[in-house]
Write the structure tokens for this entry.
Amino acid sequence: MSLTEAYAQGHNDRSTLRKPDWLRVPRRSSPEQSEVEGLLKELGLNTVCKEANCPNYSDCFSRKTATFMIMGTDCTRNCRFCNVKTSKPQGLDADEPLNVAQAVQRLGLRYVVITAVTRDDLPDGGASHFAATIRAVRRKSPQAAIEVLVPDFKGNKEAILAVVQAGPDVISHNIETVPALYSRVRSQANYRRSLGLLAEVKRLDSSIKTKSGIMLGLGEVRKQVLEVFDDLMEASCEILTVGQYLSPSLDHYPVQEFIEPEIFDNYRKIAYEKGFGFVASAPLVRSSYQAEEALHR
């Protein structure tokens, strides 16, 4: 019986998807975590750390950092791997850019990661709101480096330009999985469109670093993963993250395989050989986890 069949047969048996030891992260609390949580609540801010149920949540908050998620918590897309809820989004909060900037300043962050839900309901996909947030952070914390993890904006080049012109240090867009799995895992996305966004950023401003990430354990094979590496290199992507997919719930796409840490090590070696400037590849790697290391490598 395959893992997928076992998963379907034993839908309520979580032991079917029992995590190996290397994926077990103890949840802990700290005064620093409580401080970050209190500040986010005070300013009415969201984080992808919480909304996506990231396994590194406690670690990041304990280091007094977080990945801000702007434009609400309701996504217009329904990717089967993602824990962020799909619903009709609310209007944009005009105070949010300043509130993010205040949080960055009060936390004393040297490196800021800002992401968002996908907002296909907005004409520019929320690009102007990204730009406003980048500029607000720059005004409050000019010493901070800024990374934005953006949606694909449906390939809208004017939207991409708006974000580029705001001047972030890194623009990230995750490829997520191999193209053969898009129809099952992220059917509303387009593999070539995502590659095109990364290439367009470099065409518009070569000084901005580009970054992407892929999850393993969704049913891909090695040859497909290496082809994604090649495609990202062709799109002039400089920073790569590779991590283990963890299904957020029994209602999400099931994990097909838990990848051994040694395989992640091998993918890191190969990615460097292919020419990436920085590679983070390990089971618990996530696109924004300890992102500062990539910029200052």
